Amino acid sequence: MRENKVRSVWQRGEAVVNGWLGIPSAAAAENMAQANWDSLTVDLQHGLVDYQTAVTMMQAVSTTDITPLARVPWCEPGIIMKLLDAGACGIICPMINTRKDCEAFVGACRYAPAGYRSFGPVRALWYQGADYFKHANDYIVAIAMIETRQAVDNLDDILSVPGLDGIYIGPNDLAISLGRPPSGVPTDKLVVDTIKTILAGTKKHGKPAGIHCGSTAMAKEMIELGFQFVTLLADNAFLNAAAKSAVSEVREGISVKASGSY
Hints:
8-stranded parallel barrel; TIM Barrel; alpha/beta
């Protein structure tokens, strides 16, 4: 089996630095994979990525030793199993609000008797090794997204589901659920306090907590708080920010030169 860096980093008690792939392009994914992430998550929930493109993106990530993960569109067993069969080393599942939701999610990630995943790993077998079936249940990471008031109310029940490896906070949906506007870098006291409450709950259950971060400063702050999985922005955000910065810098130079010529 290949190394699952998410598990390896967690076993060392450290924080996973995760990247986010929303541009539907194997070339863009391969480019992002040059940045020395621990893991890269292909996002099929929001944005433009479909299943077939996601497969090519994971193949591109697999040119490196970075661990490929996938966020599914919903807690639907079929797409969870197909992405695992395609080589995803873990699944991030949105809108897990109850213990029943979490049991259904975790079950789709595990072969019997721990779950109900159907056997047919296809690319996972080629990519992760001939002993895939033997180790898959302990190898795959199942990460539930906690992003609603209901999920916070049911946090203990969710975290007590056997086989759940960790949780992942979606700050924007969490804020909306709490009656606050979405923000990539939360500052609202209720949202910030709720994030800390979720983190405390995961620590009580001995599970790693992750969060999507709208800035590198936020990511570092979250690691200091005790989060063990931080996502830095997304590929499209990096591209957008770098392009805007470059164009602004050039236009600024042109403006200075023009004003100095009169």
